[in-house]
Structures are given as C-alpha cells and as structure tokens.
Design goal:
This protein is 31% helix and 21% strand.
C-alpha cells in the first residue's frame, strides 16, 4: 500500500464531501432541496451559481407531446441523486440548495414543457428500481445509457460523458487501456453504478492472465470514495469523466488518467414511458435556442455536448 497523502492536502470542500452526502433524503420542488449536512465546493470555496434557466420560455409544440394527464396536472415527480461532486450535482453551503449540471438541465426542460418539478433526493442505486414501481416519473444521476439498462429503462439523452480513472499523484499508472492493468489493485467506485458492473464483469481478465484479481471497493456514499484514495485504502477510482476531471482540479495530489469508455447520459424513465418524446423535443429546443450551450459552459463540460437528443440509443461501443 502506498503512503497516504497528508490530510492537510485535502481541500476544505472535499473534507466536507462525506457529510454532504450522508443526508440525501429530503423533498423539495423546483431547483432546491432540503437536507442536512455541509456542501462541497471547489478550491475557491464556491460553486457556479449563474442563472441560465429562468429565462427559458415554454415551447407549446414540445408541451403538446406530453400525455394529457401530465399537462393537466402540471407537475412531475423527479428523483435526483446528489453525488456531492460537481459538475453533476452538489449542495451549496446552505446545505439545502442543490446545484449542478443535472439540476440545470432538468429545470430547463421543465420550463420548456411548462411543468413544475417535485424533486426528491434519493440514493443512486435506488432510483432506477423506483421508476419501475411508479414512485417517481423520472430520475437524474448522470445515468449512462447501456444496453443492459435499456432492457428495463427508457432514456432521453442530454450529454455524452462516460467512464474514466483517477489515481494519486504518486501512482505508477499513466493511462488505463485494459483491465489487466488493474490486477492486484484496489479499485474504488460507486455502488449500483455502471462502473461497478463493468469492473465485476471484467475481473476474469486477471485470472485469465494468471494474475491476482483486482478488488472492487464500492461506496454507497460518493463522498467516501475520495478519502479512500487519498488515505491509501484504494489505489484507483473509476467514475464519470466529467466528475473525475472536476475532482482532480479541486484536490491536490491526484491525477486524471483519461477517458476509458464514452457513454451517452440521459433522463431515466420507466420502460414504455409516454414522456420521452416531449423530453426529447425539449432538450432539442434547448440546443437550438442556446440554453444548452450556456449550461455546459457554466459547468465546464462543453466536451460532453451532443448534437441532438435521442431516445434510448444503443450503447456506444469503442
């Protein structure tokens, strides 16, 4: 095991990360949610709060694609996974207000469709099963569109992100292009994610090569992942490309190892949903009127832009 980095090198933002993600159970509406705990921030102690959504106007053509009962009700129940690490989602220092790329896109789409969102925070791994049960109408959590998920979930894409790796600065790893490079290491990732599935499915490459398998360390609370790397309990973190890029910019002594596999990311719905055409039209409207680019610019994720939204496209194959 490598020598852990000194705890003083952790920024205040990520020292508070664990606390922020321990209380993801409160309900709210619009773009705010109540929850206890502190909020992560960057080295400056601030997260971008530029308003890029309030000026979005309703698009009647897109709204007409909604099921009649939804138009009449005027609300949708949305489950949001607040991972604590921007750009996807995080709490502001008040510990109540949720911000992030996922939040801005959901709120902007709702305005295009003339709807009000009733937002509830939920753990990442609980959201997709809850869609099938009817507890929520849709979910956000940087959900990658995979062929396996498409069997039971419908998606409407809004960005292209994917899988990557990060390590401590003292790691000998330079770039990971094959899972065999992980043999014998401890790999940290989020519970219930595509990363966990991908890692478990590829463990055999080590035994096939006569090497010691890597160990997958899963964390229900995303805030616990970075301390596990900083303190030497894990050797590598596998997570979203955008999330990793942001995290290594905010913490000393970490390195991003580059992209491993690209994935489309989308709003998640129960299979067979009638909401998908309206959401697709709303995302495309945001692309056309420039709001889409303003959201990406705000969160520094223009490299994740898509040209058009799609409904449950096949998984991207490298």
């Amino acid at each position: 095991m490598r020598t852990p980095l000194p705890s003083r090198r952790l920024t205040t933002a990520f020292a508070l990360l664990t606390a922020a993600t321990l209380t993801l159970t409160a309900c709210g509406s619009g773009d705010s949610t109540t929850a206890g705990g502190a909020a992560p921030a960057g080295k400056s102690g601030k997260l971008p709060t530029t308003d890029v959504v309030s000026s979005v106007a309703k698009d009647d053509k897109a709204a007409r694609l909604l099921p009649a009962d939804v138009r009449d009700r005027g609300t949708l129940r949305i489950a949001t996974s607040v991972g604590g690490t921007p750009p996807g989602s995080a709490y502001l220092p008040d510990g109540r207000t949720v911000v992030g790329q996922d939040i801005d896109f959901a709120n902007a789409v709702a305005k295009v469709l003339g709807l009000r969102l009733k937002r509830e925070t939920a753990s990442f791994e609980a959201i997709l099963p809850s869609l099938d049960s009817g507890k929520y109408d849709l979910g956000t959590g940087n959900f990658g569109v995979t062929d396996e998920r498409r069997r039971t979930i419908d998606f409407v894409t809004y960005i292209n992100d994917g899988q990557g790796f990060a390590v401590r600065a003292d790691s000998k790893l330079k770039k990971i292009t094959d899972f065999a490079q992980l043999c014998g290491l401890n790999v940290a990732t989020g519970a219930g994610t595509t990363f966990e599935v991908t890692l478990e499915d590829n463990k055999h490459v080590c035994s096939d090569a006569g090497k010691k398998p890597y160990s997958v360390k899963t964390y229900t609370e995303p805030g616990a992942i970075w301390p596990s790397l900083q303190q030497g309990r894990s050797d590598v973190v596998m997570s979203t490309i955008n999330g990793l890029r942001y995290a290594v910019r905010q913490q000393e002594g970490l390195r991003f190892l580059g992209e491993f596999h690209r994935l489309d990311v989308g709003f998640a719905f129960k299979k067979g949903t009638k909401l998908a055409p309206a959401f697709q039209a709303a995302v495309n409207r945001l692309i056309e009127d420039g709001t889409y680019d303003r959201i990406l610019k705000k969160w520094g994720t223009r490299a994740s832009a898509i040209e058009k939204s799609r409904i449950s496209p096949p998984e991207i194959k490298d």
